[in-house]
Amino acid sequence: MLVQPIHGHLCRSPRLRFSDAQKRAVITWAKALGAPNVPTLYGLKKCHNRICDQVGNPTEKVKANSGNIFYLNSIAKAIAKDYANPLTRMCMQDYPEDGQGRMSQAHHGEKMLDLPEGLAVPSVRVDKKIYFTGELLQQSSRSYFIPKRFFQAYLPDGDAAHPEPVILAIGNPVAWTASGFIVDPEQIITEVSTFARTFEEIEESELECGFTGGRLVLSVPLIIFIDDVSGNVSKQWNKHHVVYMSNAAMPRQMLEKEFCVRFVSSSPHASPLELAKGVKDSISTAAEHGVIAWDCKYEEEIMLVPYGLFKAGDNPMQA
């Protein structure tokens, strides 16, 4: 009589956290079915702790000014997993796109092309070399250039059968004279594929890499969603507020998938503003120090700088 209800409960709740009593019921159910090597509850907890020790526990304790205590999953660790996972990384858009009036993805937004310098993607990789905004470089034509911003666009002379966006840079051309470099105040747009020599190569000296450590640096736009959840005895929760996060570098088709929505925090005691401050502090800390992550696309370490793109919510929560 016990088997059928538990079986249905398990199949309908793949991500529901079970209480100890429920775990014991599942273990009893498995033993009743004659399953081999059924672990004990103690063994499950011991395995869980060992996994947390090996891969790290993303949950952090946060204390609000009011004294409320809640727990928050690290923003830095969440986005690092996105870049290490081929399912999510390979569909990401690293640079905003000039959609020519077309708007179907977050990176098509016109404001994405005019982000403040601290939020725009500061670097680009060309032929295994990394170029940064605000740094002098030399192009294949032997002319000099200082990029100010990187973005993508479809060029009219591209391959019509297999159109691919081209990474472009807007910046200032630089002329070399006997007196030194002269920067042209009028900005132009050029393809990053023309970049040939980095600033370090121009200087012909070993320079300290500083904050980035010589890594490719990418900005990560985040969508933050806060909502209130009413209490429900049958679903095992009391009334609370919850925070979710999505990586807006992914296309809309991926953002709609459940595994691309990251749980960040929830609390029946802390207010939405207290939760929002905890999320803001987590993002600010990650942006200040940079998030070192393994990039499965380039197969190397990169640095991520997250920022909040926008906060989503229903009308009562936005109010």
Automatic annotation (TrEMBL):
<protein>
    <submittedName>
        <fullName>Uncharacterized protein</fullName>
    </submittedName>
</protein>
